[in-house]
Amino acid sequence: MQGDTAFFYTALLHAHRTLVGVSVVLFIARAIGVAGQRAWPMTPVIRWSSVLIDTTLMAAGIALWVLMQHNPVHEPWLALKLFLLLMYIALGTYGLKRGRTRAIRMGFSVLALLVITQMFWIARTRDPFGILSVLRSL
Question: Which of 34, 49, 53 is closest to 98 using CA atoms?
Fold first, then answer.
C-alpha cells in the first residue's frame, strides 16, 4: 500500500472495528434492558444513537470496500457477511421490539448475537465458513 492509501486503510479499519464494538455493546445493553422490561432501551435518544453508530459503521465498511477494491460478487466471504448483516438486523429488530413475548425477544437477541459472532469470524478468516473454518483446522 502507498502512503495515503495505507493511512486511510488504517484509519478506516480502526474506525470500523471500534464502531463494531460500540454497536454490539449497545445492542447487548439494549437487549438486557428489554429483557428486564426497562423503558430506556427504546427511548428516542438510545434508538437514534444506535442508528447513528450503525450508519457510520456501514459507511466505514463501504469505504473499506472501495479503498481495497473488494467486490461481494467475486468474494463469497464478503457476500455472506452482507447477507448475515441483513439477518442480524432482522433478528435484532425482533429481539428488541417485534417479538411478542419476553422469551421470544430474548431468543431472537441470542440468535442475533450468534450471527454477529459468525460475521466477526468471517471477517477475521475471510472464509465463508467463519468460525467453522477455525474449528475444522483444530
Answer: 34
